[in-house]
């Protein structure tokens, strides 16, 4: 019995040592990436492309939570532990200011040569104290998705203002319900209490002349008539043209309802375009995108979103990891993602690329929307953006659920932001 | 246990016992006491989670922020023209000033948690961190209702599966399925069933019975959130309760029932005079288990309600992860610890769980 035990032990030792030996032959790089819609699949595909060119590198793709707040939570745990387990992080456009100190300066690893090809605002956003802490990967802007077939059937135009959107949505919703679809709604968007609501509410407010919560020159501007009006307007949609459950919806919930053919309009990011045209979608070929409606300011506003790649300072192979990040965010990687997943490139020349434009025609048409997108006040509030945003979305959410009225909510937002940031009160920035 | 009367052998044995206990103590020290001490220490600082800045010692500030509240009377609004108290024309009730004008703003901003009427005057309870006060309330309500319902249902199920019938073994195994499912997974399943459209099971069923229009929003409607969460927990943990009570039932000797039968006691009488008193220790253990467990509830709240409504533990999580206030989060951890400790003690006292 004892002999066998020794034998087994010896075997275990041999096996574990050879396993270590094998692992050392290849450099392993772990990329923490999102998995909203087709994201994960495309990241794996990009990793495959890189591995074919570099057989000595093995890339693992780590799937991370859908909600950006949850994803941040996971990242913070890795960063607090100074963990080498993840080498490359997919980071939100609002994080470089908050998390920059944990990432390496990509300019030192050859990013300097390529940054000129990218959108300058994003490169600027990702540069913290002269260090490029993240390379732009894809950009996002809020878009209005609309059903071409239904607008045509009821002879309506694509809405240019929020009031038009309300009218059209109400009319068509009533008609469609009378025609036998009781689950049909006019407008779906992101109303859950999370970062996505900050994006949506910023669009209502800014397009209505209500400013950007905190202005770029560090003044708190949220407490104004126009912002209150915008939040009230949205609260009026809940239970009317939007389902009551919209206050619990994130991107993917809205997309599912939209793809089931149960919504006339949807506010979402560009990624939903390719997915909506997939075979599993009920509305394949029956929709298009437009800029979001305008409010009292007379112009439309789209929140700037998007994701970047950063390399952890705690990585064991920073050179290889930086190379992987630059490859994925390079022209080849971004082109593949644009064609197969309608992820907006951050490389300017790709917007003239014929193959890209054929796959996603709206990239050319809405180029202006992407370049003029309004940024969330992440730079003005760094390193407290996350808390500032929470104050904002919790306040807006309490109005949407009817817990509070808009004017009280913005008064509290103002007081809380003042406590958090210590900035003065100012006039809202106009588009 | 007089020391004088102890034999050499007994002394030797005691020494051995101490030696054998040392490893356990060391492990406990490393894995329990050290982190606990760390949390206590951090709770007195303003440390940022995953930050690289410096940490300062700030004393009891975190606790003060979490626990301070004040009750103020809301003065009625006086009409400037007439000098009389303003009356709402529609409801015919007095109009009071809004809490934002009444609650103190310095040195900390107090926000309304709850308002109530008392002898015609209106009062408001304000707190510096209203979300935490609400989280404590949510957790306590959740605990009371879920544990109560689980105990009643669990007892019923235990009595059924304790009786003789065909396929009893099978039934006992099947009963445990909800408890075996990982909470996050089952919470996700419930989330789908709670969908605010007819795609969700509950809305579909309610619609079939003609209740509502198929858009009950269980997870965002403030008055439906708690019942929904409690339902999930009851579904999941009743089997565990039943299992604990079943073990207790099996300890009761059959002879007692036979004797009662001979004496002509009815089944109900038997239940109240034999089953229940003899089951008391098992019920006590089960109650302690479940109450302490429910007070720490995190997963169902995090998955189903996230930042819409907090339990103590999920508020703690969001303070740490989202707001990155590690000092504050540690203080919340300490408060939860003390609260649970207090609950455990009072349970032991009330239910007379013997220490010997």
Which tags fit this structure?
heterodimer; A: 431 residues; five-stranded mixed β-sheet; four-stranded mixed β-sheet; 19 helices; globular; B: 356 residues; mainly alpha; three-stranded antiparallel β-sheet; 62% helix
Q: Can you tell me about this structure?
A:
The complex is a heterodimer of chains A (431) and B (356). Chain A is α/β, with parallel strands linked by helices and 431 residues long. Chain A has helices at residues 2-25, 39-53, 68-80, 96-99, 120-126, 148-153, 162-178, 195-207, 225-237, 251-259, 272-276, 318-328, 331-341, 354-359, 362-365, 367-371, 378-381, 385-400, 406-421; strands at 27-33, 57-63, 88-92, 127-128, 131-132, 135-141, 143-147, 185-188, 219-220, 263-268, 287-290, 304-311, 424-425. Chain A contains 19 helices and 13 strands. The mean pLDDT of chain A is 91. In chain B, helix 4 (130-162) runs antiparallel to helix 11 (267-295) and helix 9 packs across helix 11. The model of chain B has no long low-confidence stretch (mean pLDDT 89). At the A-B interface, helix 3, helix 18 and helix 19 of A face loops of B.
Short characterization:
The complex is a heterodimer of chains A (431) and B (356). With 431 residues, chain A is an alpha/beta fold.
Strand content of chain B: 5-15%
Strand order of the largest sheet of chain B: 1-3-2
SS field, number of helical segments of chain B: 14
DSSP strand tally of chain B = 3
Distance between the termini of chain A: 81 Å
Biggest β-sheet description of chain B: 3 strands, antiparallel
Q: What gyration radius of chain B follows from the Cα positions, in whole Å?
A: 27 Å
Give average pLDDT of chain B, whole number.
89
Q: Which strand order does the major sheet of chain A show?
A: 2-1-3-12-6
**Largest sheet entry of chain A:** 5 strands, mixed
Name the largest protein-protein interface in this structure.
Answer: A-B, 38 and 31 residues
- Low-pLDDT runs of 5+ residues of chain B are none
Kindly provide the radius of gyration of chain A, computed on alpha-carbon positions and rounded to a whole number of angstroms.
24 Å
How confident overall, as mean pLDDT of chain A?
A: 91
- Helicity level of chain B, as a percent range? 55-70%
Gross morphology of chain B is globular
Global outline of chain A: globular
Q: How many E-type strands of chain A? A: 13
Strand-and-helix sequence of chain B, N→C?
HHEHEEHHHHHHHHHHH
């Amino acid at each position: 019995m004892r002999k066998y035990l020794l034998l087994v032990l010896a075997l275990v030792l041999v096996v574990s040592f050879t396993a270590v030996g094998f692992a050392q032959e290849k450099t392993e790089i772990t990329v923490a990436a999102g998995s909203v819609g087709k994201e994960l699949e495309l990241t794996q595909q990009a990793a495959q492309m890189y591995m074919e060119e570099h057989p000595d590198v093995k890339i693992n793709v780590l799937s991370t939570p859908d909600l950006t707040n949850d994803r941040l939570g996971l990242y913070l745990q890795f960063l607090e532990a100074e963990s080498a387990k993840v080498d490359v992080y997919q980071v939100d456009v609002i994080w470089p200011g908050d998390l920059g100190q944990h990432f390496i300066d990509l300019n030192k690893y050859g990013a300097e040569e390529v940054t000129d090809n990218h959108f300058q605002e994003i490169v600027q956003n990702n540069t913290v104290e002269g260090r490029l802490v993240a390379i732009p990967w894809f950009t996002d802007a809020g878009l209005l998705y609309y059903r071409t077939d239904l607008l045509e059937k009821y002879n309506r135009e694509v809405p240019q203002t929020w009031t038009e959107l309300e009218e059209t949505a109400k009319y068509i919703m009533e008609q469609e319900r009378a025609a036998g679809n009781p689950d049909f709604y006019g407008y779906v968007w992101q109303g859950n209490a999370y970062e996505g609501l900050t994006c949506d509410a910023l669009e209502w407010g800014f397009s209505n002349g209500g400013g950007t919560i905190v202005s770029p020159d560090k003044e708190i501007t949220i407490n104004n008539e126009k912002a209150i009006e915008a939040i009230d307007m949205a609260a009026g949609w809940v239970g009317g043209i939007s389902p009551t459950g919209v206050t619990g919806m994130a991107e993917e919930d809205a997309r599912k309802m939209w793809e089931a053919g149960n919504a006339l309009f949807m506010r979402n990011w560009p990624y939903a375009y390719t997915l909506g045209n997939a075979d599993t979608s009920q509305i394949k070929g029956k929709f298009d995108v437009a800029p979001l409606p305008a409010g009292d300011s007379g112009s439309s506003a789209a929140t700037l979103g998007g994701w970047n790649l950063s390399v952890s300072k705690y990585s064991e192979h920073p050179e290889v990891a930086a190379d992987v990040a630059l490859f994925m965010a390079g022209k080849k990687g971004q082109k593949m993602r644009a064609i197969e997943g309608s992820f907006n490139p951050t490389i300017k020349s790709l917007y003239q690329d014929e193959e890209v434009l054929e796959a996603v025609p709206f990239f050319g048409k809405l180029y202006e929307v992407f370049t003029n997108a309004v940024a969330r006040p992440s730079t003005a509030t760094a390193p407290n953006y996350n808390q500032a945003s929470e104050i904002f979305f919790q306040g807006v959410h309490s109005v949407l659920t009817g817990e509070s009225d808009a004017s009280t909510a913005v008064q509290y937002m103002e007081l809380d932001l003042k406590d958090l940031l210590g900035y003065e009160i100012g006039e809202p920035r106009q588009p | 246990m007089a020391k004088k009367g102890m034999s050499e052998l007994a002394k030797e044995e005691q020494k051995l016992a101490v030696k054998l206990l040392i490893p356990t103590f060391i492990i406990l020290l490393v894995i329990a006491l050290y982190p606990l001490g760390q949390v206590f220490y951090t709770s007195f600082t303003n440390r940022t989670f995953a930050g690289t800045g410096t940490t300062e010692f700030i004393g009891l500030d975190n606790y003060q922020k979490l626990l301070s509240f004040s009750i103020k009377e809301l003065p009625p609004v006086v009409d400037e023209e007439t000098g009389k108290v303003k009356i709402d024309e529609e409801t015919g009730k007095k109009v009071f000033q809004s809490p934002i004008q009444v609650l103190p703003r310095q040195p900390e901003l107090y926000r309304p948690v709850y308002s109530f009427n008392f002898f015609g005057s209106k009062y408001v309870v304000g707190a510096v961190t209203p979300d935490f006060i609400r989280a404590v309330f949510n957790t306590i309500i959740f605990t009371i209702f879920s544990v109560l319902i689980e105990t009643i249902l669990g007892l019923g199920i235990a009595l059924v599966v304790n009786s003789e019938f065909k396929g009893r073994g099978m039934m006992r195994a099947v009963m445990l399925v909800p408890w075996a499912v990982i909470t996050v997974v089952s919470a996700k399943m419930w989330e789908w069933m709670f969908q605010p459209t007819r795609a969700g099971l509950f809305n579909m069923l309610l619609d079939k019975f003609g209740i509502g229009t198929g858009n009950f929003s269980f997870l965002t409607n403030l008055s439906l959130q708690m019942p929904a969460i409690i339902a999930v927990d009851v579904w999941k943990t009743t089997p565990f309760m039943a299992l604990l009570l079943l073990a207790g039932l099996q300890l009761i000797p059959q002879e007692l029932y036979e004797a009662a039968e001979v004496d002509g006691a009815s089944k109900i009488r038997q239940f109240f005079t034999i089953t229940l008193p003899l089951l008391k220790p098992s019920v006590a253990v089960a109650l302690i288990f479940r109450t302490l467990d429910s007070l720490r509830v995190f997963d169902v709240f995090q998955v189903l309600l996230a930042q819409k409504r907090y339990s103590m533990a999920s508020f703690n999580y969001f303070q740490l992860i989202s707001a990155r206030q590690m000092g504050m989060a540690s203080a919340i951890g300490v408060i939860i610890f003390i609260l649970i400790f207090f609950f455990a003690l009072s349970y032991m006292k009330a239910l007379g769980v013997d220490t010997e």
